[in-house]
Amino acid sequence: MKRICVFAGSSAGNHPAFARETKALGEAFARNQIELVYGGAKSGLMGVLADSILAHQGKVTGIMPTRLFEKEIVHRGVTELIEVDSMHERKAKMSEMADAYIALPGGFGTFEELFETVSWAQIGIHQKPLALFNIEDYYTPLLELINHAIEAGFVPESNRSLIKEAKDPDRLLSELVKLG
Questions:
Q1: Tens digits of per-residue pLDDT, 148-176?
Q2: Which InterPro entries does UniProt cross-reference here (predicted)?
């Protein structure tokens, strides 16, 4: 596994564990020589992860639409910055470059990227592993909702395996590498 796309919040959230564990994930990326592919911002958990990887001599590729350069405050210190025209192009490029996906805590944008990636896996557009970094049980309510959707007959039980989950950065990467 060479590259992992990470979806993450453009804010750091209100619990110190979000940033602390994101930094630890960055160290694990660098230690395992896995390149980060992400949205290209220097703010929030996106920036925390990129900075951690760069501080440990890892590689980071940011992908951002031109019109978001000011709003998301583009990270100009990344190894490679790819400028695209639209959010659709950003997501397509991130997916094209990635061998796997991780979702860190985040808001609507993170949820949208996560669910689009899961939907693509469900219909066979890709077979790349996907995992949630469940810091402070951030994603536990979402996992419960997914289980509820399975019980209600809206998601096939076999598709539950499309989303892995871990609370430890090394275990998270180990699971993805094993699946990839």
A1: 999 999 999 999 999 999 999 999 999 89
A2: LOG, LOG_fam
